[in-house]
Amino acid sequence: RLAAAADHPYLEAMVIDAFEPITWFRKVDLRHGPPGGMDWRQRWQVRMRKVFETETILVGETEGRIAACATGYEEAGRIGYIDILCVHRDFQGRGYGREMLRAMLDYFRARGAAHCHLECLADNEAGNRLYQSEGFEEITRALRWWIKL
């Protein structure tokens, strides 16, 4: 289902918790300390506010709880972009990430998208296995560089 505004606080907490081991924001904090006085969680809170304002958010529920979400938006040229795919820690390993990925792909197809892309850190092995198993093709790798000014 589409997320409701009342879901946003729960989704924000769920995403921040689930992304702790994999977000590059945290890697910066661990190496250099919180840039600009904002730690990685605070930067994710700012990011999530933008997601809530600008992206489509789908949620998956089980046992009366939100177990997973996917966010994304449509780009020009009939292209979908999946920004966030997240499964609550309590529900990981049950296939809910795959279900949310497929739901977002169906959402884009229903709106006429012919292609979809996403980004995943190279060291997110579980995510990369999922995307490859669902037919995504690795196109390129990017490096994220950082410098203190």
Explain how this protein is built:
It is globular, with a radius of gyration of 16 Å. Strand 3 (79-87), helix 4 (96-110) and strand 4 form a beta-alpha-beta unit. The chain starts with 7 loop residues before the first helix and ends in a 16-residue tail after the last helix. Helix 2 runs antiparallel to helix 3 (40-54). A four-stranded mixed sheet has the order 1-2-3-4, with helices on both faces. The chain has helices at 8-19, 24-32, 40-54, 96-110, 125-133, and strands at 56-62, 65-75, 79-87, 115-118. Helices cover 40% and strands 21% of the residues.
Give a quick rundown of the structure.
The protein is 40% helix and 21% strand. The protein has 149 residues and is of the alpha+beta class.
Return Rg in Å: 16 Å
Low-pLDDT stretches are none
Find the count of extended strands (DSSP E, 2+ residues).
4
Distance between the termini: 44 Å
Helical content class: 40-55%
How much of the residues is beta strand, in percent? 15-25%
Rounded average pLDDT: 94
- Spatial shape: globular
What topology, given as strand order, has the largest sheet? Answer: 1-2-3-4
Order of helices and strands: HHHEEEHEH
- Structure classification: alpha+beta
Number of helices, counting only DSSP H or I runs of 4 residues or more: 5
Main sheet properties? 4 strands, mixed
